[in-house]
Amino acid sequence: MTDVTPYVVLSAILFSIGCVGVLTRRNAIVVFMCVELMLNACNLALVAFAKQHGNLDGQIAAFFVMVVAAAEVVVGLAIIMTIFRTRRSASVDDASLLKY
Amino acid sequence: MSDVPWLTVLVAVPLVGAVVVAALPRAELAKLVALLVSVLTLGVGVAVALQYELGGGMQLTETHDWIAAFGVHYALGVDGLSLLMVLLTVVLVPIVLAYSWTHADEGRGASGSTRSFFAWALALEALSLAVFLATDVFLFYVVFEATLIPAYFLIGGFGKAGRGAAAVKFLMFQLGGGLVLLGSVIGLYVVSAQAGEPSYLHADLAELDLSTSAERWLLAGFLIAFIVKAPLFPLHTWLADTTEKATPGTSVLLVCVLDKIGTYGMLRFCLELFPEASRWATPLVVTLALISIVYGALLAIGQDDLLRLVGLTSLSHFGFITLGIFVFSSQGQSGAILYMVNHGLGTALLFLTAGHVIERRGTSSISRMGGMEKLTPVLAGLFLVAGLATLSLPGLSPFVSELLVIIAAFDYHWWVGAVAVTGIVLAAIYVLWMYQRVMTGPGPLAAGAAGGAGEHADDPARREPAGHGTDAPTGGTATATATRPTTGTTAGSSTAVGPRDLRPHEVAVLAPLVAGLVFLGFYPMPLFDVANPYVEDLMSHVGVEDDAPAVPEGTTVEHAGEGAH
Amino acid sequence: MTAFWILAPVMVLAALGILVVRKAVHAALLLAVVMISLAVLYAVLDAPFLFAVQIIVYTGAILMLFLFVMMIVGVDASDSVVETIRGQRPLAVLLGLGLAVILVASVGQITLGTVVGLDAANEGGNIEALANLLFSRYVFVFETTSALLITAAVGAMVLAHRERTGPRPTQASRAAQRVRDFAERGEHLGPLPAPGVYARHNAVDTPALLPDGTPAESSVSRTLAARGRIRSAPDLADDIEDVQRALGGLPGGSGSPGDTASGSGHNTENPSAAAGGPATDGDPGSEAPR
Amino acid sequence: MYSLSEAAHQVPVIDPSAADGTFSLLWLVIGLPLIGAAVLLLGGRATDRWGHWLGTLASVGSFVVSVLLFVELRGREEAERSVTQHLWDWIAVGDLEVGLDLLYDPLSALFLLLITGVGSLIHVYSIGYMEHDPRRRRFFAYLNLFVAAMLMLVLAENYVGLFLGWEGVGLASYLLIGFWQHKHSAAAAAKKAFVINRVGDIGMALAIALLFTTFGTTSFSAISEVSGAAEEDTLTAVGLLLLLAACGKSAQVPLQAWLLDAMEGPTPVSALIHAATMVTAGVYLVVRSNFIFELAPHAQTVVVVVATVTLLWGAVIGCAKDDIKKALAGSTMSQIGYMMLGAGLGVAGYAFAIFHLITHGFFKANMFLGAGSVMHGMNDDVDMRRYGALRHAMPVTFLTFAMGYLAIIGFPGFSGFWSKDKIIETALAENWVVGVLALLGAGITGFYMTRLMLLTFLTSKRWKDDVHPHESPAVMTVPLIVLAALSVLGGVLLLGDWIVEWLAPVVGEAPHHEPPLPIIVITLLTVAVVAVGVAAAWFLVGRREVPLTPPQDVSFATRAARADVYGDAINDVLVVRPGAATVRGITAGDRTLVDGLFTGGSSGVKAVGNVLRRLQNGFVRSYALSVLGGVLLVVLALLAVNLA
User: Fold this and answer.
1) In sequence order, which ranges of D538-619 are alpha helices (DSSP H)?
2) Pairs of residues, one from chain C and one from chain D, whose beta carbons lie less than 8 Å apart
3) What is the pLDDT of residue B498?
4) Structural domains in chain C, sorted by start
5) Does the distance separating the beta carbons of B559 and D13 come in below 8 Å?
6) ipTM more than 0.90?
7) Which pLDDT tens digit goes with each residue over D376-391?
8) How is domain A5-90 classified at the architecture level of CATH?
9) Which of B175-179, B209-213, D48-52, D541-545 has the weakest average pLDDT?
């Protein structure tokens, strides 16, 4: 059988890219997309490990991650919309009132 | 052992009472219930005292496992020391509540209401009782810290402007002390676990065989916490601020009950658990105590705020108590224990009468008072009695304890006694100067009253040199009208005829304190009967004996030719 | 592995693209690329069910939702290139690189051993096997996720819902409001004049002319005005004068601006002034009927 | 300088027997006035109408019991004239056992008679004197309290019990000096008296402590039994500490400053407390502690020095005062100096000290009450410069006062003649310097008392016309007459050396000691010196016109005397001002330095927080960056642990 290490490495790279995206992008929607990217990267690792161990639990976990991601996106986007309505901006930097 | 867990009942009654009072809808009802609960607690306290056997060590014990893994127990017990502290607490709380009947609303802010004052006071009583009764060090620590909660709200919720800051300061000091204490409590677990089965029971810990350095480190934690609590010299600044800002009732609970935990803890934990280390620390503690005695008295002399002054007198008194504890003689320790009780009674009376004075004058600034004696002779008399108790006049109970401490200090080292004894002069100065400025002199309305009111027509003013008497009526009325606006700010308590004297029920509230001071001044044997067996046990546990007199009784002397010649 | 080696660079490039593109829509599209590629990799990794779910849920639903919100927020919204937080970008890149290096290095260090493969687990079909697991061992988790989804749906509705703060306006209240606005701020009370009413041209981009010959700017759509696609008033004024001159009837000075529609001959003489609206409604700027 | 008699003498041991029979009434002596005080203080206004009668009755009752006891005691054998009554255990800790015990022996018996006798007379007098005071009931309550405390003082069987009475009289004195509290001067004087007394109490408290550590007891009888076994240094220390206490209570230099101010109190108070009884407590203490002082010759020397200084100090003050009460107060100070001198002279002088104490109690109380009677007639004016020629207006007062005057200057045959002469005699015998100074004091006494007498009763009338001096009512004059009679006849106590023999069981018996000069010579010398003093007063005061305001161009000595020999000034410079500065410094220091430990700490925390809070910049991405940094750290740490 083929080795799953490349998949895991790819997952790590995607995860890191997602991280950097969260840190550098200011549009809330894009930040959200980067979070989704990180989640997907994790899913890839889970699926890869499922194959590695011959165990479907990894796939189940990936499935649940998707479900939770869906819920999260729904709520998150609603929040972004609400913020946008009141502040006319979707930049995460504008919501910086909670500070010293 | 009787079936009724008396000590748990003793703690539970005020605790349940506090919850009930807090939940009651009307303030008047809450006051009544709170008073009844405190009287009920007094009853339970008396019941405990009646079952107590003199000299019987720890009694009425209750022990239940709490956290078995750490050897923590819910363990209560009462011995001579605890009993006196418990009785002091249960006696003072009803008096404070009765006093606060009309005073609880004074200057309260949004954070407090009459009802909550009573509820917090009961909670404080319950927790203080638990502190005095706990025979498990961990349980002690928990309730020791828990007392800060009601105390914080009592200080922060009721009193003068600036009480919030005072409450925070109080809390910071106490939490700081508590933190150090926690370190030692954990350390006790470690040494206890190393010795075998971990146990926080006081009796088990007292048996531990500690290495010298471990004992000293553990002692340091306990001692610092208790020095903050008691308080002694460098860690006392919270006391002055707190007593200045809080209501007199709160101050009584704080200084007369809560602060006793510090000196109680020194006896119960420092001396009983770490006897060798305590003797090692004696020079330092004695020095601090001496500084506190003199420093506190000098500070008190310099104060202008009546309540702050009274608070600082306690610094001096706690110096005496600590001194008595740490000179390691039966006179000193019995004296210190008696001092704790007597100071509780005397200072409570002083705080409460000062509260009455302040209420009548609408200010706590001594420099703006004067001349109260003519208008309020009963109040002045009680104030003077309280002051005389504070300066340890023979015939009032504090004298007995102070004399014992001075004797013991002298026995320890003559110069220690000599420094401590200056406290009695300084006490006379701060008490009498305070009385002079508050009570004596012509006063705000006295001149007007002398000119008009029939009662004062035959005023001894006529005995003054003639020059004074002739212009009294005109000058007097002018003074009266000029000063009335300032006294009028007393919010209703000051009528056109000036501050009124104490009413009978107010006297009745204070009467038990006066009676106690006088009775115990002439016949303190009940206290000795309870305290002496405890002190004997303690002395033998610590391993010290009283110095024998240089010339014991029964020495035969040839009565001829003695002297230098 | 062929699919992997083809798709992996694509995915990494697309992911990196998300970091740099300015427009959110482009980012969404690049994300779609990554996700679809992922779906393919799932298929390669013997997870056909997840392959389907990835495409249906992620690419189909979630990404659509992203785009939908993006349309509401404004499709043009794009980040400025300037980083406002000092040191954020280099630090982020540094730390991200660090993370990647550590993760890759540590994954590379580990020998995972032989791959067991899912052939045995997927024997009765991947979906059936998953279903067996999902409805036996993970049934409680599964049910919990349903609660989560419902909560999320309700939450989204609550968040996105705009509460009506006042009663719904009726026709009468609107009319009353208009009169109040006119009284307080002098806002125009009647309907706006139609374009080109008094002009020679009645095209939408030609403002109507007032009786004194000045153009009524408000008769033209604001959008046209914003685009600059409007015919200038002087032009039209010239036209009118030409007409007047052509008719030759009137002396130049009689049509003073202050002279309102008071029954002089202008209206009747102008054949194109069929509509009586402006006359009855009063000119803009006239005194309010109090 | 001063040397103790070479002859061996014996310190008597106090060996009391338990009270029985009449002596079991002993507690009643204290109890009656105590009950009176309690009833009057607690009874409030309800007792206003008859309070003064109750107070007087309590005092008289106490006197009656005292007389009964005295008669009983006289009936006993000399060796058995010492009775103790145990009331109850007071303090009991370890070795320290203090009972509330009473000791009745010849010494206390005399004091009992003096206190209750003079006390009762002054009670009676006060009924008239305080008639118009709205707070008369309280006055009587305080008087009763004083009498009870004073009796406790002289009846106590141990030093702690004595301390109880000691402070009790201090309290009563405080209350009575400040009786007219509405006057700032009275309130301040009361406080001053109490505080200075407290300085003396330092000595008392430390003496008790030292006695306990040395002997393990504070009881007179127990200590007197073994005092010889103690080291002399210890006994000297005890003696000096007791002397400090005595100085406070008896207004001896350097703690003398309060006595003159104490004249702010009503005049009966001055008579009872600040002349007849309380101020002599110091003398009592020294005499009572003879078993200490006899064995501590150095302490005795200090007593003598202090006494001599005081007797001159007080006499000088008495010469310059225009306030009749203050002149008498200066005289009191001086006379107590004589008593202290007698007490300091040891066995030879104890009995005479007590003798002078008693006669002084009679004639000084007499004169104070006479002064009160004068003030009563003069609208409470105390300035002698506005008196003059009052002998016609108030003949009874004048005559009784004259008896006291003759007694104090030591006119032959009057009581003071016998008592003072004996002290001077003994002083000369023991040490001629002290003796000569005491003799000088007698001369000054003659001067200032004559001056007082001349200014008040003789010379010309200087009071204004709107003053109508009149004789006081009988309730005031009868006590005056009784006291005058006692002043004249007090000398009978010395008949056949009665008082010396009476006190011998307590203070010991001095071996006969030949004075340097024949006694008759000394007596004549004393009379001559006094005569010089009287004559000087006659020439300086009696023959000149007395100005209404005191002349300002006077000698340094007069100015010093007017300023109480700068006693207050010295206290001010040495104690009050440095003390006030210390208090101010400490009060400020507490707020800044000591509290600064806390506030400084808290502001330090605040400063750190101010820096650190900048990290909370509000940007989510910054926080996320921190999280990522944290993740990296954790991962690295895990790797490090796993790889290590």
Assistant:
1) 556-562, 567-571, 577-589, 595-612
2) 27
3) 63
4) 1-77 (1.20.120.1200), 175-245 (no CATH)
5) yes
6) no
7) 888 888 888 888 878 8
8) Orthogonal Bundle (1.10)
9) D541-545
